[in-house]
Amino acid sequence: MTNASTLKIEPNAQGFAQAAQIWRGGGLVAFGTETVYGLGADAGNDTAVAQIYAAKGRPSFNPLIVHLADQKNVAEYCEFNDDARALADAFWPGALTLVLPLRPQARVSKLVTAGLDTLAVRVPDHAIAQALLRQFGGPIAAPSANPSGRISPTTPEHVMAGLNGKIDAVVDGGPCGVGVESTIISCVGAPAMLRAGGIPVEAISACLGRQIAMPDDPDTPMSPGQLASHYAPKGRVRLNADQAAPHEVLLGFGAVDAPLNLSPAGDLTEAAARLFDCLHQLDAMGAKDIAVSPIPDHGLGRAINDRLRRAAAPRD
Ligand code: AMP
Ligand code: MG
Predict the structure, then answer these.
(1) Mutate to test the pocket of ligand 1, among 53, 58, 64, 113 (most ligand atoms within 8 A of CB)
(2) Which of 167, 264, 286, 293 has minimal CB crowding within 10 Å?
(3) Domains and CATH numbers, the chain
């Protein structure tokens, strides 16, 4: 959506049903949690997730945190090791996000994981967020509900000030209790802190009975998005190609003759929704040299180009 004004939904049974309906139709609904307001969309719907990036004006596709109502739901999507289970038992529902291995069959958009085989998940401790997630009955991807680069919103008024007219609705959950983002811990291998947040690292270490790796440790895996060539396809990538050389596979955009096309109609939302899937398909095809059509550098095109530039960056 781009023009009509954003609906303010009351936090009652009728409002929850209405919000879930919008999510099922691929729309965007902001909602309060104990950390900050999240901009939610159906995490299984590529186009809906692409709209999150469009509404926020995000210049890059960093993976998003998925919200679920309880640990049992999370176990349908992710694998837990002992550390993950201990942290989930201790801190969920709450301001803790765990990065866990994604189950191979889990129905989650590749735009949510940015093509990774791990998923960042959280079970929020907020009655309204809980009611909405239960009503929807599936995973909701939700970064903070603010335009990219602006301060995270902790009231529905903040959300409206930044995104009115760009999202379908905001559910009024009053002011957020914690007001800072969740702490992110990776439990893929040895536990490591990826982002400081609402739950102090001391509490995490106390729960696990040992110190955990911190973001500035050289051993800590970098958060995806920071690495130039992270989750790039295996083949070499050449950008802004008007046509492919004989040894190249063309990843097209717009009206070009290509074995794979991000959007034959030249639609940036469709291209964003298909980007990671196309990169995976290029790997599956065994493409060694990839040429990519020029992509306009505005709106979602900026995030697409950012990702493609990382994919094209030199690597070992
Ligand atoms: P935001 O949704 O804007 O609060 O940011 C989400 C944060 O979670 C970013 O810093 C991401 O890099 C991080 N994140 C999301 N998914 C993953 C993942 N699979 N592995 C590591 N970090 C992740
Ligand atoms: Mg944010």
Answers:
(1) 64
(2) 286
(3) 7-224 (3.90.870.10), 236-312 (no CATH)
